Amino acid sequence: PIKALLFDLDGVIVDTAIFHYQAWRRMANSLGFDITEEFNEQLKGISRTESLDIILAHGGLVLSDEKKAELAAQKNEWYLELVSQMTPANILPGVTDFFAQVKAAGLKTALGSVSKNARLILERIGMLDDFDAIIDGTKISRGKPDPEVFLKGAAETKAQPDECVVFEDAVAGIEAAKRGGMLAVGIGEPAVLTWADLVVGSLADLTLDEVLTLAPTHR
Ligand code: G16
Ligand code: MG
User: Fold this and answer.
1) Where are the beta strands (DSSP E) in the chain?
2) Which of 23, 34, 43, 173 could be 78's S-S partner, Cβ–Cβ 3.0 to 4.6 Å?
3) How far is the CA of 93 from the centre of ligand 2 (A)?
4) Is the dihedral of CA 113, 185, 170, 41 positive or negative?
5) For 161-213, how does the pLDDT look when each residue is reduced to its tens digit (9 = 90+)?
6) ipTM, interface predicted TM-score of the complex
7) What is the pTM of this model?
């Protein structure tokens, strides 16, 4: 039986991807090049330092570790300026209603995000108390697609991997869930999230009953 539901943050609970994109773009522009929204897709669910490396390679730049640390800090400052304007109105469609169903059914919930700002964001949208466990970038040593973030969520909610369902919008996140031996619900496009056991446009398109009767389509 399903005991715990593990949620990604960015793109599942709240749309912070646009803020990450705006902050990274501002940084790229300051270095003399640009990034597109399409390019930004590959950064979803990828850690801050790895994202920076991908962007610098795209701009054809090789920089010292010191300079890179400076740029990562600057990007985060710009990102936090945008996050500071967030309110509960930024919660994605269907999330609040879905969580009401989950709580009523007595299931455990965990957050599984590689972001070091996850707690701050949950606080801004008023959802800090909605999770039984919060696994974020401060608690993991390996980012998605490594399953660490979700395996820790399972452990903290005292569920076995095959008793967990992961909700993810990123290819790297679906891969992390499947490598961890969990069921994965993709939020987005079926053509993109090919490894997911089910894909929906948003949590508004899904009932808890559908999730609880899910069978693995991939291993
Ligand atoms: C999120 C975003 C990524 C971001 C990462 C690190 O992951 O999807 O784009 O680079 O967090 O965030 P921060 O710079 O705040 O530590 P997730 O796992 O919530 O999708
Ligand atoms: Mg995400």
Assistant:
1) 4-7, 108-112, 133-135, 164-168, 183-187, 198-200
2) 23
3) 15
4) negative
5) 999 999 999 999 999 999 999 999 999 999 999 999 999 999 999 999 999 99
6) 0.93
7) 0.93
